[in-house]
Prior knowledge:
This is TIR domain-containing protein. It contains 17 helices and ten strands.
Amino acid sequence: MASSSSSLACSCLYQVFLSFRGYDVRKDFLSHVRKELKSKGIIVFIDDEMKRGQSIDSELIGAIRQSRVAIVFLSLNYTSSSWCLDELVEIMKCRKEDQQTVMPIFYKVDPSDVSDQINKVGEAFENTCKGKTEEVKQAWRQALKDVAGIAGYASSNWETEAEMISKVASDVTDVLGFTRSNDFDEFAGIGARITEIKSKLILQSEEVKVIGIWGPAGIGKTITARVLYNQLSPDFPFSNFLENIRGSYEKSSDSNDYQLKLRLQKNILSKIFKKSDIEVHHLGVAQEMLSGKNVLVVLDEVDDWWQLESLANIHRYLAPGRIVIITTEDRKPLKQLRLEIDHIYKMKFPTSTESLQIFCQYAFGQKSPEKGFEMLAEEVTGLSVIFL
């Protein structure tokens, strides 16, 4: 990934500018990138609607200069467009002036072909150079050489385009300085619990991490798992938080165990891959689809061993570093399951200080008592600690 500037202009109108050769990427690859960026709330400028002339105009130059990040899709026919090359020159000027982060994607081309303008990239470039001044040609050559020297993303290095796109979007959010979700900051003690659980994960480890979060109803298992998921999911190309498994997959007297397991697998896979038409005809489908993938999965409110049995061997085939988080009120499913649990975290009851904060949050909308209610608040929370 390209290094980001520490002094980006504060007047940026757009967050990302996309430079591309429509002929190569518009209908498929580019559309998926745009969708992924949009899903993360990123504002993108794309010149689909602009009428193209012989050279880029002041409006487009303004859009480039008012974008914090430029993603350059260096495809096979990128150099066949003088418009694209002029865009690239302007983008590299912005980078040199320390105003913009440039992230090149080498889509089905080798970076050396771009840098040296050789092979098919070079042929297209030479045709575009016909009739141009030496000054223009030299500016294009230098821009191509410079952009090829930036650490970017080569499609040949990725197993799937989906994984590469997810990584690009995640890196863009990092460059833009997007913060992790703080939706749960008001929950007293959540930070300490998250820190303790994350210490068991060791994300750099080559080992699989399967974490069980166990405790009675209402103690905060789902909230804790949700915060973990929000913090970790941007680093995983495939992720899913499957809520309330207990309520969604209850076993009745006439239930067919096998069909229930197939339905659970289908739901998990559909959400991980964001496809509703996935067919699961046997319990080996999840293993086949997830094999070698870097996945984060949260299975929330598990209450019976059968809900996990169909997933018991999947973790053996995922990529190193993947994480499975299971929340449950009953520790038995974790013990009965033929799954290697790395750590079972027992949710702790809140301390007296945390209990006071929780009570005040509900009673007064803040973490401390209103003036004049200090004694009463402490008395109430003291009673709750005794009953716990």
